[in-house]
């Protein structure tokens, strides 16, 4: 399907030229982790994850139900994307049986500890909501977010339409994930943008999300966003705020070692996160360093319970966290992290956990 070709290149592109440019831009911003005093060692570290590319088309809705049941049973928390137009039409309008079953699971995800991000409508070209299909010959959504000439009102209309599609199925979005793309036209345009400076999202994008948050269109008062990641310098950045509402770039500080979008066993390594004896791994290092959070990202292709080569590794990591780090971490959805961070004006709320 059209979504799959874009999905395959998402993190490959992120790991190449685009991520280096994004990292360069972030490197010149104030780092929120560094803005506060060192974390007291008795504070817990928040644990969470982003799951990209979730859909009913590759392995069916039953796999997502199994995933949610597991998350609820284990009392873990994270986020999973819902790409409502990934099948070439809005699955909330006259859905087939599989789409209907999937939408039912997305609607219950919150009660299972999982938030829902828009990634955006198609993970490919811009969607024509009147025609109920992806428009022909249009810019891809991820690149569109970086185009400096796009007006805030245009972003608002597009995102408002996606939120309305979610409302049809009782789905309330909690955040936003950038749909990366490695197609030749996008790569060429990103290169042009980088030649003029870091290829950062259009500032109007953040402002548009803030307007919608203030209108109560998202589930919470804040909107966490996933654009780039960095194991060492992953941090939280406030991008727009007004009173009780805010938009944050909440960067993962751990990567995908659960099979990635290729669903490849060559990219499965639970020890990367935490070893069986609990003495090593990036999550252990973050906890030992007193980091406020340890967030990884993964892809549905690799982590789904039906055919994902990383599913057993995912459950092993969850079990190891519980066994070795249970009293030093607290699971929390990304949107709950940003809500509490915004309300507290920093990481002080961790003292209450």
Tell me what you see in this structure.
The protein has 353 residues and is of the alpha/beta class. It has one domain: Glycoside hydrolase/deacetylase (TIM Barrel). 38% of the residues lie in helices and 15% in strands. The protein is built from 14 helices and eleven strands. Strand 2 (78-82), helix 6 (97-108) and strand 3 form a beta-alpha-beta unit. Helix 5 (61-74) packs parallel to helix 6 (97-108) and helix 8 (152-168) crosses helix 10. It is globular, with a radius of gyration of 19 Å.
Average pLDDT, rounded to a whole number, is 90
CATH class: Alpha Beta
Radius of gyration of CA atoms, rounded to a whole number: 19 Å
What is the 3D shape?
globular
**Which CATH-level-2 architecture?**
Alpha-Beta Barrel
Q: Write down the secondary-structure element order.
A: HHHHEHEHEEEHHEHHEEEHEHHEH
Low-confidence stretches: 1-38
Hey, roughly how much beta strand do the residues contain? 15-25%
Tally of domains: 1
Task: Name some characteristics of this structure.
single chain, 353 residues, alpha/beta, TIM Barrel, two-stranded antiparallel sheet, 14 helices, 11 strands, disordered N terminus
Please write out the topology:
Blueprint: H1 2-8, H2 10-15, H3 17-27, H4 32-35, E1 45-52, H5 61-74, E2 78-82, H6 97-108, E3 114-118, E4 127-128, E5 133-134, H7 141-144, H8 152-168, E6 175-177, H9 184-195, H10 203-214, E7 222-226, E8 236-242, E9 245-250, H11 282-288, E10 293-299, H12 300-303, H13 311-324, E11 329-331, H14 334-344
Parallel strand pairs: 1-2, 1-10, 1-11, 2-3, 3-6, 6-7, 7-9
Antiparallel strand pairs: 4-5, 8-9
Helix pairs in contact: 5-6, 8-10
